[in-house]
Amino acid sequence: MKLVLLTMILSLTACATVKTLPPSTSHVNIEHHGKRSYCQSIPRIYSGFSYNLCKLHGEPSRQENLGDSFNNVPFFIIDGGFSLVADTVALPYTLYTQSKHGSIDVN
């Protein structure tokens, strides 16, 4: 039980949802090992998952550069699963902030 709780706490520290959830966030920088994203903006609704998708939609690299990974699965892919859960829990809040503040600008 303690291991599960510790894993959840550690996963939230890098969770994309936590980075994009505050209402004061109007701009976010998305890049993966120096490669910038082509995304212009992301919606506040499911913003954490959108953040991770924008990491995939970035400048191409001529070499394989997955960055930090666990069993050859990049952390931002793993974080996508956690972000889907966190974004679903935060859905009532993000619906409100989307209508009040609009989307989040990228780069």
Structural commentary:
By secondary structure, this protein is α+β, with helices and mostly antiparallel strands. 50% of the residues lie in helices and 14% in strands. The strands form three sheets. A three-stranded mixed β-sheet has the order 1-7-4. Strand 5 and strand 6 (73-74) form a beta hairpin. It is flat.
SSE layout and pairing:
Layout: H1 2-13, H2 16-20, E1 27-28, E2 31-32, E3 35-36, E4 41-42, H3 47-56, E5 69-70, E6 73-74, H4 75-89, H5 91-101, E7 104-106
Parallel strand pairs: 1-7
Antiparallel strand pairs: 2-3, 4-7, 5-6
Helix pairs in contact: 3-4
Looking at this protein, list some descriptive labels:
flat; DUF1375; two-stranded antiparallel sheet; lipoprotein; YceK/YidQ family lipoprotein; 107 residues; alpha+beta
Compact summary:
The protein is 50% helix and 14% strand.
Secondary-structure element series: HHEEEEHEEHHE
Low-confidence stretches: none
Shape annotation: flat
Number of helices: 5
SS elements, strand count: 7
Q: How are strands sequenced across the largest beta sheet?
A: 1-7-4
Proportion in β-strands? 5-15%
Protein name: YceK/YidQ family lipoprotein
Signal peptide: 1-16
Pfam family, one: DUF1375
Keywords: Lipoprotein, Signal
